[in-house]
Amino acid sequence: MNKNDLPLGFGMALAQNETAMQQFEALTTKQKEAVVNKTKKINSKKEMKSFVSSLSEGSLQI
Predict the structure, then answer these.
(1) Distance between CA 40 and CA 17 in Å, rounded?
(2) CA pair distance 18, 55, nearest whole angstrom
């Protein structure tokens, strides 16, 4: 999975949170796909920011 496969809002939110980006990059391909699938259910910028924050904090359940 490369950066071109990421939903635009998720990619932008990751770009603004370096810790979350590092956490995401450390995931396996299968885990990344699970995270991306979860982002497809997010409907607002605020929700996406919260989702990415949970990824950076390590509290996201995959």
Answers:
(1) 19
(2) 11
Q: What is the pLDDT of residues 28-52, one digit of tens each?
A: 999 999 999 999 999 999 999 999 9
What does the block give as tokens for 17? 């949170």
Residue ranges of the domains in the chain?
3-57
Owner of token pair 């949970």: 54
Residue of 52, 13, 57 lying closest to 35 (CA atoms): 52
> Could you tell me the two tokens for 62?
């995959």
| pTM of the shown model | 0.84
Taking the C-alpha atoms of residue 12 and residue 62, their distance in angstroms, rounded to an integer, is 20
User: What one-character DSSP code corresponds to residue 23?
Assistant: H
